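testing teh design pipeline on a random one, pls ignore if ur not involved
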């Protein structure tokens, strides 16, 4: 019997070539072995969809691998929070994939210059953040679209998040949750000392943000884009890269947009 796709589903027919990737944890590896036995295991570069078994961090690692190939990812939660993942169940996996709805994400691109002049570049589906390396708070000048908006921020660090990443580190730092369709990027300070009451900003998604480190030798700072960490930085430029699109699949009525809204009403 054919499985009718849900409205706005990714697949018009049941996918046949499924690749399974799992984190190193025992529970994820056991779940993968069981699924491979039932559905086979396609090579990643030949797969129609990749099923990720692990936590949110592992799914982000997989997105970095598959986004450039246009392969959608469907996550099954074998970790803790599982905000970007679906629940594990005994329901037929092909049925779930066929009815799954897609959310598209564009990463941030970080361009960092070290104090020694070296250049580093990376993308982040969650966030780009700067953070002090020593006991000293850092001093950062913030420019948005070549206009200085904050001449000096004294803080532990600062975050630029994607809408999907707005519920992660950004939320922990008391930044706003942003719906996927809002075309906004939250800019959130981490433990701001001066200006004491500055709580950050919401920027248009096409904004270009430049962070310049002040008193660099006295107040060293690191920059992080998902899994790339660069230490002793002098300058960081952050912008959205719409040339890259990652697709995450969710069970109907449990999509990422719904989760972001629900998170704002969580106790």
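output:
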């Amino acid at each position: 019997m054919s499985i009718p796709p849900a409205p706005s589903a990714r697949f018009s027919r049941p996918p046949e070539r499924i690749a399974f990737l799992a984190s190193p944890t025992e529970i994820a590896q056991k779940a993968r072995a069981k699924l491979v036995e039932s559905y086979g295991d396609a090579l990643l570069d030949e797969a129609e969809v990749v099923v990720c078994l692990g936590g949110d961090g592992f799914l982000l690692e997989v997105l970095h691998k598959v986004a450039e190939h246009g392969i959608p990812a469907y996550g099954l939660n074998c970790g803790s929070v599982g905000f970007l993942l679906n629940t594990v169940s005994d329901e037929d996996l092909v049925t779930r994939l066929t009815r799954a709805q897609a959310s598209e994400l564009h990463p941030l691109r970080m361009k960092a210059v070290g104090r020694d002049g070296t250049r580093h570049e990376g993308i982040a589906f969650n966030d780009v953040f700067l953070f002090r390396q020593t006991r000293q708070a850092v001093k950062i000048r913030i420019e948005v679209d070549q206009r200085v908006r904050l001449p000096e921020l004294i803080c532990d660090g600062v975050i630029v998040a994607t809408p999907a990443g707005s519920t992660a580190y950004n939320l922990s730092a008391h930044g706003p949750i942003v719906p996927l369709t809002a075309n906004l990027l939250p800019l959130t300070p981490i433990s701001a000392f001066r200006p004491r009451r500055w709580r950050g900003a919401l920027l248009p998604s096409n904004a270009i943000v430049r962070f310049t480190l002040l008193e660099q030798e006295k107040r060293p700072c690191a920059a992080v884009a998902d899994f790339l960490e660069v230490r002793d930085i002098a300058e960081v430029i952050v912008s959205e890269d719409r040339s890259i699109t990652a697709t995450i699949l969710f069970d109907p009525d449990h999509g990422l947009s719904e989760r972001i809204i629900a998170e704002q009403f969580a106790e």
